[in-house]
Design a protein that fits this description.
The chain has 141 residues and is an alpha/beta fold. Helix content is 24%, strand content 38%. It has a single domain (2-82, 95-140), classed as D-tyrosyl-tRNA(Tyr) deacylase (D-tyrosyl-trna(Tyr) Deacylase, Chain: A), CATH 3.50.80.10. It has a 5-stranded mixed sheet with strand order 4-3-2-1-5. The mean pLDDT is 96.
């Protein structure tokens, strides 16, 4: 499982002109992708890492300050463009495997006490955010 984690001062996801997920103020916008070998345990580990990752101001984590997370599924994190001019998506898990894993990350975060907003799996989404820093890190579990 891979994640692009951005420290933000607000973020939102819009689908067909409707805001389907939004966080306000300090938090994290997280793009999450799954690959073929990912499991429920992988999703649990990712959720714990995201909740306790000390990347907010003053080296705080979301768990320290109750900061919200916007989690958006992103199969393109497993795109491979090393050859040719078109990326391949072979390493990305198919939707029937990836969707429950991304949902599991969200439910595990909520179980830990997090406020979690989401996008809509498989939809054409418009993600907007104000990157705070800017600050972006990559995680791989």
């Amino acid at each position: 499982m891979r994640a692009v984690v951005q420290r933000v001062d607000g973020a939102a996801v819009v689908v067909d002109g409707e805001t389907v997920g939004e966080i306000r103020g300090q938090g994290l916008c997280v793009l999450v992708g799954a690959t073929h070998g990912d499991t429920e345990e992988t999703a649990t580990r990712m959720a714990r890492k995201l909740w306790t990752l000390r990347v907010l101001r003053d080296e705080k984590s979301c768990s320290d300050v109750g900061a919200p997370l916007l989690v958006v599924s992103q199969f393109t994190l497993y795109g491979d463009a090393r050859k040719g001019r078109r990326p391949t998506w072979q390493a990305a898990a198919p939707g029937e495997l990836a969707e429950p894993l991304v949902e599991s990350v969200c439910s595990q975060l909520r179980a830990l006490g997090a406020e979690v907003a989401t996008g809509r799996f498989g939809a054409e989404m418009r993600v907007s955010l104000t990157n705070d820093g800017p600050f972006t890190v990559l995680l791989e579990i």
